[in-house]
Write a structure and sequence with these properties.
Structural class: alpha/beta
Helix content: 25-40%
Oligomer: single chain
Strand order of the largest sheet: 12-25-26-27-23-24-13
Bound molecules: adenosine-5'-triphosphate, magnesium ion
Number of strands: 27
């Protein structure tokens, strides 16, 4: 792949050249442990670890765990597992903002002593009301001019637990008429009598994100603090705090566009709702855009990294076509995974001129020739087979080249067969069996007389078939933008009711019998699949569809290339 270049790398390269920070490049990935990571986080991980590595620096993993009410050790563990699985190593650089609580407190004391912070005893509601609007300045708090001594005393007593939640807050003393609303004496600390998952009941005051984040960066010697665009206005406060506490060569915050992916949602608040309201089976439901969901769906870490590199980083928000992700998944899996045959919706096919007691072992390659990989497995062939229900039509339309009365098709790797009869349920008319004759001279799939047979279908020998469950996953939402719903509805109204179709009667060829759960395949003509790591049992596998074989993104690319080569593109 070509060397990466984008506006962030250009800034970092320049800073390295000028020696701006006087220390090696240091980035961090700073998740809040209040949910599982999703593919938007992957973009940030790939960027932070990637930039550090390319410029000879290091990247930290830091949990931004300053909010006791939403955080959980379960999320800390899941996040570490996911970052590792994506292929990144923070080595001994695992940090927790909660480990800095004492130092953060001391920085706050320093601000109070410098007259840059004060204890406000208005209610949080009053504070909100008195902030003013974009057009009108805020109103100064009556407590704004408390003496340093009084502020120090109150702040110490806030920490000691003398006051209930909401009685006081610590605020920065900046400017209540500041054009940037976030600079109007922002809250730095709140009282929360809550048990923190790591610090327990040691603290009953907790720092706000804006206070904790910049100082955590500074404590760790971060050089480039990469974050998403919604923090653009926070940068002024980030810089203010670091300047006022006297940090030398402070980290520089740079914002980039967050990933928005079509047909899904990338916000933890919404993902939590999908889990809690039972729209999905959990954080690792294969329909979820979470790393855990994508993993269970069969997506590889390489495909996710390739996708993140393909979309790059930009300064402006945009939506990304999910076909790009699916394209990267196929590109990655195509050369990696073996082809096998699985019949999703089986229909019995009986070869009436094939001996009842005979079984042949046909050798079938695991990879098509263009992959250039060795390997094959024996596939048993016998008189009774299963084929795909929709590979037979009693009354086929024009252009249908599969099996129909009187027609001949190729059974992949096996023989040519011709349909001679159809057995139906006399009461319902449902087709129960298709009867064929085979051409014994066509072993391997070609007729000796060279007659043309257009259709090729896959099959599984009935006697040797392994019954399995197949879960066909599709896009979670019907709308590219799930917010695109009617007045009064929310994004859940756009959920795709067919995002999961479960097939209980599928059959797969016996070669997969001893493969461990989590093995990936291409089921010929059906798509890429993985045996579900959670629900598969020995002898009765469950397969998740990762993606179909239809690559709409590649098609779009081909069309664009064609248009530009014929001069049609504008
Ligand atoms: P969410 O909006 O899903 O709740 P968050 O920003 O609150 O996400 P954090 O745990 O704070 O979640 O995110 C950790 C890092 O990942 C942050 O630096 C954040 O900017 C980045 N990040 C989160 N979502 C995306 C996204 N969709 N695209 C790129 N980066 C993201
Ligand atoms: Mg956040």
């Amino acid at each position: 792949m070509a060397p990466k270049s984008d506006f962030i790398r250009a800034i970092v390269a320049e800073d390295v050249r000028t020696g701006k920070f006087g220390r090696p490049v240091r980035t961090r990935f700073p998740p809040e442990p209040n949910g599982f990571l999703h593919i938007g986080h992957a973009k940030s991980i790939v960027l932070n670890f990637g930039v550090a590595q390319e410029f000879g620096g290091l990247c930290n993993l830091r949990f931004d765990d300053t909010n006791p009410t939403t955080e959980d050790i379960r999320y800390v563990e899941a996040i570490q597992r996911d970052v590792k699985w994506l292929g990144y190593d923070w080595e001994d650089r695992l940090y927790f903002a909660s480990d800095y609580f004492e130092r953060l407190y001391q920085y706050a004391v320093q601000l109070i002593e410098a007259g840059k912070a004060y204890v406000d005893s208005q209610s949080e509601e009053e504070i909100r009301r008195n902030r003013g609007t974009v057009n009108t300045p805020g109103v100064e708090s009556p407590y704004r001019n408390r003496s340093v001594e009084e502020n120090l005393d109150l702040f110490r007593r806030m920490r000691a637990g003398e006051f209930p939640d909401g009685a006081h807050v610590l605020r920065a003393k900046i400017d209540m008429a500041h054009p940037n609303m976030l600079m109007r004496d922002p809250i730095l600390y709140r009282i929360r009598h809550a048990t923190h998952y790591r610090t327990g009941d040691t603290w009953c005051i907790y720092p706000m994100y804006d206070f904790a984040h910049c100082l955590s960066d500074a404590i760790e010697g971060i050089t480039h603090s990469l974050c998403t665009l919604e923090f653009k206005d926070n940068r002024e406060l980030y810089d203010w705090i670091l300047r006022e506490v006297g940090i030398e060569r402070p980290p520089q915050q740079i914002e980039f566009a967050r990933l928005n992916l079509d047909y899904t949602v990338l916000s933890k608040r919404r993902l939590i709702r999908l889990v809690e309201e039972g729209h999905v089976s959990g954080w690792d439901d294969p329909r979820m855009p979470t790393i855990a969901g994508l993993r269970r769906r069969g997506v590889t870490p390489e495909a996710i990294r390739r996708f993140c590199e393909m979309i790059g980083v930009a300064r402006a928000d945009s939506r990304v076509d999910i076909a790009k992700l699916e394209h990267c998944i196929r590109e990655d899996l195509n050369p990696k995974v073996p082809r096998v045959m699985c019949v999703l919706r089986p229909l019995k096919l009986v070869i009436v001129n094939y001996p009842e007691d005979r079984t042949e072992e046909l050798e079938a390659p695991y990879y098509p020739r263009d992959i250039g990989k060795e390997g094959s497995r024996p596939v048993p062939f016998s008189r009774e087979l299963f084929i795909e229900r929709d590979d037979f039509m009693e009354d086929p339309p024009k252009g249908y080249f599969r099996l129909a009365p009187g027609r001949e098709v190729r059974l992949r790797y096996a023989y040519l067969v011709r349909c001679v009869d159809v057995v139906k349920d006399p009461s319902t008319g449902e087709i129960l069996e298709v009867h064929c004759t085979y051409d014994p001279a066509s072993r391997g799939g070609e007729a000796p007389d060279g007659r043309k047979v257009k259709g090729t279908i896959h099959w599984v020998s009935a006697k040797h078939a392994i019954p399995c469950e197949v879960r066909l996953y599709d896009r979670l939402f019907l709308k590219a933008n799930p917010d695109d719903v009617a007045e009064g509805e929310d994004f859940t109204a756009a959920l795709n009711p067919e995002s999961l179709v479960v097939l209980k009667d599928s059959v797969v060829e016996p070669s997969v019998k001893d493969d461990p759960p989590g093995t990936r395949y291409q089921f010929e003509r059906q798509g890429y699949f993985i045996s579900d790591p959670v629900d598969s049992r020995p002898g009765s596998p469950v397969f998740n569809r990762t993606v179909t074989l239809r690559d709409t993104w590649a098609k779009i690319q081909e069309r664009l290339a064609l248009e530009s080569s014929t001069g049609k593109a504008s």
